[in-house]
């Protein structure tokens, strides 16, 4: 039943032309993971590698995410990985507010169907969807409880690729994720 709902949703995403990003995409990237995942990881938008394959987080940022998941003792196949934008923004630009607003119902539906208990939010865009008008720096690096769900807010792995300082912070923060997952 749940499985079917996600399949139908993926089909909708595949044929979606609600914003102009459909024109330049090769593949939509709805996200992947088990239907009953307890944890959902939300990034920003697909990159070029993801666009080629239709799979989330498989480029350089994805490789770093894989390492971070190991630090947190999380198996990639046990978490659902997605983003609020399902098509590649050309030249890897940031998605616009309008694009996010138009695409967001797909993420909301995924969350409704999967019903995860814990959210790992990677970067400003994922954070701002759940914590409107708040500052990431005030929430980063800790678990925050809201509406009976737990959210862990950290940087996007792409920041860790660009700067060693952010990579170290990400590693430290994924160790904190491990602590609560191990409880
Ligand atoms: S980014 Fe989202 S809203 Fe825009 S075309 Fe792709 S699936 Fe549709």
UniProtKB/TrEMBL annotation:
Domain of life: Bacteria
Swiss-Prot/TrEMBL GO biological process terms: DNA repair
UniProt keyword Iron, yes or no: yes
Leader sequence segment: none
Gene Ontology MF: a single term: uracil DNA N-glycosylase activity
Gene3D superfamilies: Uracil-DNA glycosylase-like domain
Keyword field: 4Fe-4S, DNA damage, DNA repair, Hydrolase, Iron, Iron-sulfur, Metal-binding
EC number, as in UniProt: 3.2.2.27
Keyword Membrane among record annotations: no
Residue span(s) of domain Uracil-DNA glycosylase-like: 30-175
Annotated catalysed reactions: Hydrolyzes single-stranded DNA or mismatched double-stranded DNA and polynucleotides, releasing free uracil
Stated family: Belongs to the uracil-DNA glycosylase (UDG) superfamily. Type 4 (UDGa) family.
Protein name, entry field: Type-4 uracil-DNA glycosylase
UniProt source species: Candidatus Nealsonbacteria bacterium RBG_13_36_15
Organism ancestry: Bacteria, Candidatus Nealsoniibacteriota
